[in-house]
């Protein structure tokens, strides 16, 4: 089994809009579905600019891995948007998960592994290192929409995970 991204927001959450931290869901992120992480940008968000947040859990389901790193292998298709990443931590036990009440509220990052949201691409990968079977990494994503952004019907980008499978 490969490393998988699952939504946060509780064991039964299958709604990306509810991936606002908390326990890992049983639902994997669908790599081809529209709005699989963030919702559409409204006209008012495009005009005034916007920052929204989501939390995914990287799960080592059934195997161990080394040299794990995460980055944007394909930038967002709109020049007016960007995804930044931060790491809450590894193997967090309930009830210590960070949760936010809505997508517009920045998470409290005190005590996190990485306390700043940083843009990650092939030249600045987020290095996780090793993950043993059933390890979990809580990753937060911040979508930034520039002020006076142009409309687009389908802004997309690709988040990639590189690793070496050990077992």
Plain-language structure description:
The longest helix is centred in the N-terminal third of the chain and has 6 residues, at 43-48. The chain has one domain (3-31, 46-165): Immunoglobulin-like. It contains 1 helix and 8 strands, in the order ββαββββββ. Helix content is 4%, strand content 40%. It is mainly β. The strands form 2 sheets. Strands 2-1-3-7-5 form a 5-stranded antiparallel β-sheet. It has a 3-stranded antiparallel β-sheet with strand order 6-4-8, with no helix packed on it.
Radius of gyration: 15 Å
Mean pLDDT: 91
Reading the helices and strands in chain order gives: EEHEEEEEE
Biggest pleated sheet: 5 strands, antiparallel
- Annotation field: number of helices: 1
Spatial order of strands in the largest sheet: 2-1-3-7-5
> How many separate domains?
1
Question: Could you please say which CATH topology applies here?
Answer: Immunoglobulin-like
Q: Proportion of β residues?
A: 35-45%
Shape: globular
User: Count the strands?
Assistant: 8
CATH top level label: Mainly Beta
- Unreliable stretches (pLDDT < 50, length at least 5) are none
The first-to-last residue Cα distance is 10 Å
Corresponding CATH architecture = Sandwich
Task: Give the % helix.
Answer: under 10%
The chain-level structural class is mainly beta
